[in-house]
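User: I'll paste a sequence; please echo it back and then give the predicted structure.

Assistant: Echoing your sequence first, then the prediction.
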Amino acid sequence: MAKKKELTSVADKLEQLEQLQAIHSKIDAIHILKGELPIEVADLEDEIAGTLKRVGKVQAEITEAEEEIENRKTLMKEAQGLIVKYDKQLLNVKNNREFDALNKEIELQKLEIQLAEKKIREANYTIENHKGQLEEVQKRLDSKEKDLEIKKKELNNIIKDTEKEEKELNNSAIAMEAEVEERFLLAFKRIRKSYKNGLAVVKISRNACGGCFGFIPPQTQSEIRTKKKISTCEHCGRIISGVDDSAVVISEEEMA
């Protein structure tokens, strides 16, 4: 690991932090350009995956119901065949005991047929109901897939346009961070995380902090101009690297 370059001047350290902030602000601008698209794309992909899983489950239940119908039809056919067989046997019974036993078997097969008919009706209802669900789900799925296609295309276009720049900026940020004094780097990162705009290093503009716009007294501004120490805003804690003289000129009387 390369040894950090030692900077003895506070002004140099402030300039280094300014440069680091400028790099990160450009990276932040690219992220803002992407907006919520990465999250929206990920959410849509998860939603579509979940919907497809649900579709697969419903289709499996339809297949199961169709198999149930075929099995019950087979059982009905077998039961009907047995009834015919037992009816023929009734013509040759020798006693009441055989007669009653055959009638009992016939009744059992009739009950089997009734049960099969009930199960077939239930299975047909399941199929009809599930197919209706699939139609509705498919419509929503088609809509979500179209939305995903549009958002992915938009995001990919942004990535294509900014990928090279973002990569260069990230490399520059890593290189710059390797040069910044550790305590200042930790403070920089901590402050950046505290604010949505990611501004950790700002200048005074129009007598106010460039981050929170809190008023900075003229005497404090005068001290900040000397760049003899690292100063922070008493309102928001951001590092103040200097005064933007292009925005406001403070008179000697104001500084007195």
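Residues 248-256 have pLDDT under 50 and may be disordered. The radius of gyration is 40 Å.
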